[in-house]
Hints:
Blueprint: H1 3-13, E1 17-21, H2 27-34, E2 40-43, H3 46-55, E3 61-64, H4 73-76, E4 82-86, H5 89-101, E5 106-112, H6 125-133, H7 135-138, E6 143-150, H8 158-179, E7 188-190, H9 197-202, E8 207-210, H10 212-215
Parallel strand pairs: 1-2, 1-8, 2-3, 3-4, 4-5, 5-6, 6-7
Bound molecules: pyridoxal-5'-phosphate.
The site of pyridoxal-5'-phosphate has 14 residues, from strand 8 and helix 10.
Amino acid sequence: MSKYIEVLDYTQQHNVTLIAVSKTKPNEAILEKYNQGQRIFGENRVQELAAKHTALPKDIQWHLIGHLQSNKVKYIAPFVTLIHSVESLKLLKEINKQALKNNRVIDCLLQMHIAEEATKFGMSKANAEELLQSEMYSNFKNIRICGVMGMATFTSDEHQVRQEFKNLKGIFDALKSNYFGGLSHFKEISMGMSGDYKIAIEEGSTMVRVGSLIFGSRF
Ligand SMILES: *Cc1c(COP(=O)(O)O)cnc(C)c1O
């Protein structure tokens, strides 16, 4: 059985959405998974995402999972399905503006900083609360926050990874009860990659972002 089918079966058994992370991979590799039924792909660079969107079948749902600069939102706003990497009010303001221009509502996740490493992007829980309490946010009509995203520390210490996922689940639960009570669209916890998706699922992930395990390693 191919790795892809193995991961897909596992996620389906756990009611978790599989995002096939196709960054750096050629269109043919994406089409191969598409022909096996995969429709959700994740990319971390705006230009690459836009080029692949243009070239590949239009029923693919594209997720932006990497760092997003405000001045690049316009390139993906017409078609992106979910932006996982919102980490400031300023960025959200631009997404709202570009979504309005395209007459759409764009779904977003708040990227939380849960890893030990200082290099990983994301907000603290306090940052997220400040954003959600702001008057500016309350006036955004063209974005919808559907949950949180986080990346665990790159370590072989499973205990640490698990703790970081537990932390993200705790932040999700707190934000849900304090800011999204009764709003059924706030439901996603995007956590788990090739090396840790099973731990993430045990800790409550609803979306895993798996790349190298199903496409082979990136060089
Ligand atoms: C590259 C990437 C992934 C997938 O990583 P793999 O280890 O190849 O599964 C997941 N999430 C983000 C944000 C990424 O940049």
